[in-house]
Amino acid sequence: MTTDILPRIAVLATGGTIAGRAGDASMTAGYKAGVVGVNDLLDAVPALGNVARIHAEQIASVDSKDMSHALWTTLAQRIDALAAQDDIAGIVVTHGTDTLEETAYLLHLTVKTAKPVVLTAAMRPSSALSADGPLNLLNAVTVAACAQAKGQGVLVAFNNQIHSARDVTKTSTYAVDAFRSPEVGVLGFVQDGRVEFQRAVTKAHTLASEFAVGAQWPMVEIVTSYAGVSRMAVDALVAAGVKGIVVAGTGNGSIHASMTQGLVDAVKAGVAVVRASRVGSGHVMRNGAASDDALGSVSAGTLNPYKARVLLMLALAAGVEEAGALQRVFERY
Length: 333
Hints:
This protein is an alpha/beta fold. The protein has helices spanning 38-43, 69-83, 100-110, 133-144, 232-239, 257-268, 292-295, 305-317, 323-332, and strands spanning 8-15, 53-62, 90-94, 117-120, 154-158, 161-164, 169-170, 179-180, 188-191, 194-197, 220-224, 244-249, 272-277, 298-299.
């Protein structure tokens, strides 16, 4: 394929381990994240020239544990601007693994394009033996250049797998297959230039989403229920002016009795409460009179607490505050 007919893919770099460097090639920890620039990342993958024409931008150089609302806004707005250009066929974002699932879901709910948007990352720094970043980047660009990826929302390409931003989560602190979609499985696979989708995304996203990034981010925090927990954290958050609380409950989103009373008072004070689970997979069922109706809370469904927080922030920013309306948002997205 001649280069003049290759699709043009924008690669936006934000830092992370994929752009990390250590002094010793045997080290996969103790490195500095986000120090390798986007052009160096691309130069390490010469095979990209056979897949796409690359437009590269350095959006940020951060360790993704330090991801901020302001950077989310900048990233979403830049993706929308690039996607509006006729000559851009798709967009790839390189990111740190620590908060990749949160950024991916935020973009899944806010960017307004059917063009492929694909996040990728690495578990080993670029300086490491058997660094996984170069192949992940090649695969991400391959997916972004694939016509089948259009209309699927924001995707994550990692370790030869393609995940939906809504479903994917980090499941290991060190393994190169750290990302999984535990409840519903992968969307498809990418290997040796071949992209295969096995299922489609069904929940609303991107062009079908009512949400957008903006200057205001309502304060939404996460608390965890565990043996012997008190209501102290809930009371402190309400006093601080929090607008929403997501509970990482035990099992099916169950909450200790001591914390429950604090949450009842929080709801009476106008704070939105969402029940999620600290368990790594499964869904939180709406319990009706047994829990949610009495508490005035919302079930997060299959969203983990961190993604539930993203959706709750966006819903509150859009003026959705009543529990029934919030429940419908969580069922739709």
